[in-house]
Amino acid sequence: MSADTFAENSALQNTATYAEITGWGKCVPPAELTNDDLATFVDTSDEWITTRTGIKARRISHVNTAELAALAAKRAMAAAGISPEEVDLVALATSCPDTIVPNTASKVQQLIGAKNAAAFDLNSACTGFLYALQNATAQVRSGMIKKAVVIGAERMSWWVNWALRETAVLFGDGAGAVVIEASDKPAGLVHAKLGCDSEARDILEIRGFGTDMDRYENPPSALDVHFMGPDIFKRAVRAMGQGSETVLKQAQLNVEDIDLLVPHQANLRIIASLQKQFKLTDDQVMVNIHNYGNTSAATVPIALCEAVESGRVKPGANIMTAAFGAGLTWGAGYIKWGERVTPVSTCDEELPANDKSAKELLSIAIKHCLNQ
Fold first, then answer.
1. Catalytic residue among 123, 294, 318, 369
2. In the chain, is it the N or the C terminus that has fewer CB atoms within a 10 Å radius of its CB?
3. Straight-line distance from the first to the last Cα atom of the chain, in angstroms, rounded to the nearest whole number
4. How far is the C-alpha of 129 from the C-alpha of 131, rounded, in Å?
5. Beta-ketoacyl-[acyl-carrier-protein] synthase III C-terminal domain spans which residues (predicted)?
6. Marked catalytic residue, from 35, 191, 264, 288
7. Cα torsion for 203, 206, 212, 213, to the nearest 10°?
8. Which pTM was predicted?
């Protein structure tokens, strides 16, 4: 290491005490599966789904997880005004990797041209984006890196058993990303509390996959998201609430100081319970579950991106976020927004063209699941 490089790194460690969010982007595939579409092959209705979940539609991807993640990342990088070569880290939160070996983040790194970046996958299910953001933030704040792209991307439709109403109605596909950069301004993820309620890890799981399965004697005929809804609801509300209270104390903030809550979009009732607990108005809570369903690790960054795009995030805003997922992982964070609310530039790229409807994209999977 040259003397100049050592001096530069030392200066960074002494001055870059924060990891400001400077860019944001999302990628939601165009094919929409509505509740009425679901009702044509599952015993359900728009009324049944809406009253229980708040979901009206979800997106079904015609591309893999890496492509969703890469486009979200490119849009975030354009918003931040940084080049691919400047990125030091690609952190991908996903429970739907395209490949396990090699990791999917390496494919994203390749697609966005971030040839100088390290790349890792992180699976904490729906809490994954918060876990990844905390990890990348810690690296920036320690002076180890300067710039990172943090992504939550999921293709949950690949896991779903379309014959099971309780889970078929819940999930969708999409990706969201942020760019964080070293800064001496008090901005970015300032405080976070992460945890895991592993005592009940079996109430939310994807069965029949991984090295725990019987590979040769009884291979699974279909994957299945095992989901104990009522228990998950209670644990999610408790964990997200307690995590948020802890973070507020860490930040020495009162509920009245929060400008916007960006919660995990799993169920409208869970969001409403959290809103009631903290006595927040509708204007203080970001909700978009009706459009996308539960996109797992992608819900928080997609919602954050849409909040910025719609003008709900002002310069210097105090943002709380909270999530809960399989494991049972949970987390909450306090984000101090910086000054930038308008992108430096935009990315004109789009996903490859798709002429199929959501039902057409799922036709083989639906037929397979219904015939089990």
1. 294
2. N
3. 61
4. 5
5. 248-337
6. 264
7. 120
8. 0.93
Give how many domains the chain has, as a whole number: 1
Q: CB of 127 within 8 A of CB of 104?
A: no
Residue 95 contacts residue 123 (beta carbons within 8 Å): yes
| Secondary structure letter of residue 339 according to DSSP | S
- CATH number for 224: 3.40.47.10
Contacts of 142 (CB under 8 A, 6+ apart): 13
Contact 323, 129 (CB under 8 A): yes
Residue 356 CB neighbours (<10 A): 12
Asked if the structure places residue 248 within a domain, the reply is yes
Verify whether residue 347 is a known catalytic residue: no
Cβ-contact 136, 151 below 8 angstroms: no
Please check whether residue 356 lies inside any domain of the structure: no
Sequence-ordered list of residues with C-beta below 8 angstroms from that of 243, at least 6 positions apart, any chain: 193, 194, 195, 322, 330, 331, 332
3-state secondary structure 149-208: EEEEEEEHHHCCCCCCHHHHCCECEEEEEEEEEEECCCCEEEEEEEEECHHHHHHEEEEC
Nearest-angstrom CA–CA distance, 17 and 140: 8
294 is catalytic: yes
Reply yes or no on whether 226 is catalytic: no
Residue ranges of the chain whose pLDDT lies below 70: 1-16, 203, 207-208, 217-224, 226-229
* Separation CA 82–CA 101 (nearest Å): 29
pLDDT digits (tens, 9 = 90+) for 47-98: 999 999 999 999 999 999 999 999 999 999 999 999 999 999 999 999 999 9
User: Does a structural domain hold residue 299?
Assistant: yes
Parent domain of 192: 3-346
**Among all chains, which residue has been given the structure tokens 């009253």?**
51
Report if residue 365 sits inside a domain.
Answer: no
Give the pairing type, strands 32-34 and 57-59: antiparallel
Residue carrying the six token digits 């973070």: 247
